[in-house]
Design the sequence.
C-alpha cells in the first residue's frame, strides 16, 4: 500500500465515522465535529487523488468540500443568531 492510498483510506474512515455517528444520533448534521470529519474526509481523498488522478472522484470530493464549508458557515451563523440555519439532510449517504 502506498502513502497516498493510506491517506485516501483515512479520508474514507473519516466519512464513514461521520456517517455512522450521524445515524447513531451521536452527532447532528450541524455539529462542528461532523462537519470537520466530512471536510477531513474529502480533503484527504483529494490529496490521494493528486497521486492517482480520477476526474469524477476529484469533482465529487471538491463539491463535497465546498458543500461542507457552506454547511459549516451556515451552522456558525445559526449558533450565533445571525442566520436562519435549517437542519437539512447532510452526510455521505449520497456520496456513493
Sequence:
Amino acid at each position: 500500500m502506498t502513502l497516498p492510498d493510506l491517506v485516501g483510506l483515512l479520508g474514507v474512515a473519516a466519512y464513514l465515522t461521520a456517517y455512522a455517528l450521524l445515524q447513531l444520533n451521536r452527532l447532528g448534521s450541524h455539529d462542528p465535529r461532523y462537519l470537520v470529519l466530512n471536510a477531513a474526509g474529502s480533503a484527504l481523498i483529494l490529496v490521494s487523488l493528486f497521486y492517482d488522478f480520477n476526474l469524477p472522484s476529484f469533482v465529487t470530493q471538491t463539491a463535497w468540500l465546498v458543500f461542507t464549508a457552506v454547511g459549516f458557515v451556515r451552522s456558525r451563523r445559526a449558533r450565533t443568531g445571525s442566520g436562519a440555519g435549517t437542519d437539512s439532510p447532510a452526510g455521505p449517504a449520497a456520496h456513493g
